[in-house]
Amino acid sequence: MEIRGPRPLPARREEIELRTEDELRLVGELALPESRDPVATLVTLHPLPTAGGFMDSHILRKAAARLPALADLAVLRFNSRGTSSPRGRSEGAFDGGGAERHDVAAAMAFVRARGLPRPWLVGWSFGTELALKYGRSHDIEGVILLSPPLHRATGAEVAAWAHDERQVVVLVPELDDYLRPAEAIARFAAIPHARLIAVDGGRHLWVGETQTRRVLDEIVAAVNPSALPLAREWPAS
């Protein structure tokens, strides 16, 4: 079977709840390798909820569907405050990236409580803003930024990563609606060790199997490169 679309590969999947410091309940899912311990953990931060972003935004859903089986990764997805999906609605209201710092903290507290290994923050669009603004406060190995718009993360918040040894991987679509490669190079120049990957033909929403595979390949290249190349068929040969 060719691996395409959102069809999930085998994994242990658990509906979870996160509790924030300001006493909200957030709904989510944890996906783990079916029969092995994970080698690393992706804590995913979804796109802007007021523009339709949620834990099931397709790249994050496909990461959870495929990467536990293909790359031995744990994938944590959740709805930030006030966000709904088929999993349910998280309590609270969207705060434009301010109070969402508590949502990131709640996810990281869950990772610690479960003893999940080598956490990375994987943000997409609005989620990249949360990763840049709040990721440095947590015990992570690095951040992976998909289509960063840099609307809410200030220049100072970006530059603060310059003195942080943790990895910063930035995927910028050639045809992005908000931040294209040339501007991204300038905006991320404040982080000398940032690895900026310009994706030819890419768009902000990463639509299509070719773009999905490129994003998942780059995530795994950063987090567990020994799992590359990712299988394109299941069962994997």
Describe what this molecule looks like in 3D:
- Helix content is 27%, strand content 23%.
- It is of the alpha/beta class and 237 residues long.
- It is globular, with a radius of gyration of 16 Å.
Distance between the termini: 11 Å
Rg over CA atoms, rounded to whole Å, is 16 Å
- Percent of residues in helices comes to 25-40%
Give helix and strand order, one letter per element, not per position: EEEHEEEHEHEHEHEH
Shape label: globular
Task: Quickly list its features.
single chain, 237 residues, alpha/beta, 8-stranded mixed sheet, 6 helices
Task: Characterize this entry briefly.
The chain has 237 residues and is α/β, with parallel strands linked by helices. The protein is 27% helix and 23% strand. The strands form two sheets. Strands 1-2-4-3-7-8-9-10 form an eight-stranded mixed beta sheet, sandwiched between helices. Strands 5-6 form a two-stranded antiparallel sheet.
Question: What is the topology?
Answer:
Layout: E1 12-19, E2 25-32, E3 40-45, H1 58-71, E4 73-78, E5 84-85, E6 88-89, H2 100-114, E7 119-124, H3 126-134, E8 142-146, H4 155-159, E9 167-173, H5 181-187, E10 195-199, H6 209-223
Parallel strand pairs: 3-4, 3-7, 7-8, 8-9, 9-10
Antiparallel strand pairs: 1-2, 2-4, 5-6
Helix pairs in contact: 1-6, 2-3
